[in-house]
């Protein structure tokens, strides 16, 4: 078996991968692709060139054998006709006794013997050589006239099937050799194609892992996690991209801290003048400074509503600032939290004629007090603005996972807006006629993040359905 074609691609393969895989995958993606294609395609190209060379060589050898077989067949046919012609010439010379004819017969015999020697040496199988030797013994020597032609014809006729079989065997040997070349080629393909697939899958897997790492980093930044450093490994492009993203993370972290400081400072600074304004407005409403006319009363009411809105906005800013910082996870039962929320929204519920349906399937279950209260306060406050008649709140704990579902029968949430509503100060298309700061759902998102949970919109035919899930404190401690 000629396997020289296997040795060169293998040496090339080991030359190309003598560096460590980590060094290979630290190169640029374009260089990785070129090297992977080289490792995979060069052996296949080498195998194909070897196969083409062998096919051409086989075709040339087959043509030569075919031509040589034709010459052997012509020589054998000539031998048979020469022996018959010599037999007739010998019979005629017995009658004529012509010396010149006898000389011509002897010369013809010499040519015939050379033809026999040529056929014997051309098909050198033991069986044929033995038969050719028998025929050579029957051929006359110089000066010998008598030849046993019937016996010579008999030996030639007996040799002819073996001669034809030998001719066929030469062609069959070439066919077998060509089949062997095809087997080697197919065997090489069976070895190299899986190698190509393995190299391709390896490169795809490495690139996919890098893309997945990049996706996780983007999600990390999108979730507002700016504390963990970003470091991408792999190709040159990903390493450079990781450095750029880490710089962006640091800038976002700095901006986030500045924003928190600004919110806390402004919110607390506004509290004092706001309290003074509310106190002054109350004094004006009490007629302490004389009778208030109707126009003055309208102005005082406008001021009172504006102060209430400003107080709500400041409270939302303070809550949003608090939600962005670690909060105490003091536990309380859901029933305790429910009673506080009912008292908090009692006045608003009585004036809106809305009903809240509470469904608690775990009476003894506990939740972190402050973040859970902020979540439900914002969700119920939103639902009270949009609901038509009913708000449903379902609470359940299953497999150490707290599930809180808040449903209302309001106008619902557009699919195109769902990914934006958790952003600070964003207000949906249905909020034009409603008061609010646009921070409610952002506060919910920050509290859920602190609880290591998720907030998702559930698709409903009407109204809005928000599902909050987070692990119990026992599950978090165990993790």
From TrEMBL:
GO molecular function, one term: ATP binding
Ranges of residues in domain Histidine kinase: 265-474
Bilayer disposition of the protein: Multi-pass membrane protein
Subcellular location: Cell membrane
Pfam families attached to this UniProt entry: HAMP, HATPase_c, HisKA
InterPro entries: 2C_sensor_his_kinase, HAMP_dom, HATPase_C_sf, HATPase_dom, His_kinase_dom, HisK_dim/P_dom, HisK_dim/P_sf, Sig_transdc_His_kin-like_C
PROSITE patterns per record: HAMP, HIS_KIN
Reaction(s) catalysed (UniProt annotation): ATP + protein L-histidine = ADP + protein N-phospho-L-histidine
Key words, A-Z: ATP-binding, Cell membrane, Kinase, Membrane, Nucleotide-binding, Phosphoprotein, Transferase, Transmembrane, Transmembrane helix
GO cellular component: plasma membrane
Listed transmembrane segments: 33-52, 184-204
SMART domains per the UniProt record, alphabetical: HAMP (SM00304), HATPase_c (SM00387), HisKA (SM00388)
Chief location: membrane
HAMP domain sequence ranges: 205-257
Its EC number(s): 2.7.13.3
Keyword NADP: no
Keyword Transport found: no
PANTHER family: SENSOR PROTEIN CREC, SENSOR PROTEIN RSTB
Name this protein carries in UniProt: histidine kinase
């Amino acid at each position: 078996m000629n396997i020289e074609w296997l040795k060169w691609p293998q040496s090339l393969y080991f030359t190309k991968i003598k560096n460590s895989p980590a060094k290979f995958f630290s190169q640029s993606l374009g260089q990785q692709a070129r090297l992977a294609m080289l490792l995979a395609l060069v052996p296949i190209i080498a195998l194909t060139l070897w196969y083409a060379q062998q096919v051409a060589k086989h075709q040339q050898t087959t043509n030569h054998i075919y031509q040589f077989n034709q010459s052997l067949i012509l020589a054998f046919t000539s031998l048979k006709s020469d022996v018959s012609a010599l037999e007739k010439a010998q019979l005629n010379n017995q009658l004529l006794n012509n010396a010149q004819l006898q000389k011509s017969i002897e010369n013809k015999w010499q040519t015939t013997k050379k033809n026999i020697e040529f056929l014997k040496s051309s098909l050198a199988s033991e069986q044929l050589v033995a038969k050719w030797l028998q025929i050579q013994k029957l051929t006359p020597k110089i000066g010998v006239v008598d030849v046993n032609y019937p016996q010579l014809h008999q030996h030639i006729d007996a040799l002819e099937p073996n001669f034809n079989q030998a001719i066929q065997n030469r062609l069959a040997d070439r066919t077998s050799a060509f089949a062997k070349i095809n087997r080697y080629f197919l065997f090489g393909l069976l070895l190299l194609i899986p190698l190509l697939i393995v190299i391709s899958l390896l490169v795809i897997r490495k690139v996919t892992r890098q893309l997945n790492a990049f996706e996780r980093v983007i999600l990390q930044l999108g979730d507002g996690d700016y504390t963990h450093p970003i470091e991408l490994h792999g190709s040159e492009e990903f390493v450079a991209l990781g450095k750029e993203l880490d710089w962006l993370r640091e800038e976002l972290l700095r901006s986030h801290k500045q924003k928190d400081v600004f919110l806390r400072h402004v919110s607390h600074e506004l509290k004092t003048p706001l309290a003074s304004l509310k106190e002054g407005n109350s004094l004006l409403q009490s007629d302490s400074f004389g009778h208030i006319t109707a126009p003055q009363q309208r102005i005082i009411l406008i001021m009172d509503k504006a102060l209430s809105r400003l107080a709500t906005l400041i409270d939302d800013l303070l809550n949003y600032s608090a939600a962005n910082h670690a909060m105490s996870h003091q536990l309380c039962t859901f029933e305790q939290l429910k009673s506080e929320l009912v008292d908090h929204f009692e006045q608003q519920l009585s004036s809106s004629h809305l009903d809240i349906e509470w469904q608690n399937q775990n009476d003894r279950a506990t939740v972190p007090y402050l973040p859970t209260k902020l979540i439900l306060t914002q969700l119920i406050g939103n639902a009270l603005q949009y609901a038509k008649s009913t708000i449903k709140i379902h609470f359940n704990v299953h497999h150490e996972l707290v599930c809180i579902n808040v449903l209302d029968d309001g106008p619902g949430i557009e699919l195109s807006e769902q990914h934006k509503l958790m952003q600070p100060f964003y207000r949906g298309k249905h909020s034009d006629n409603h008061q609010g700061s646009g921070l409610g759902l952002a506060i919910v998102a920050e509290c859920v993040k602190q609880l290591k949970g998720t907030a998702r919109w559930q698709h409903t035919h009407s109204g809005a359905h928000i599902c909050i899930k987070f692990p119990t404190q026992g599950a978090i401690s165990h993790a």
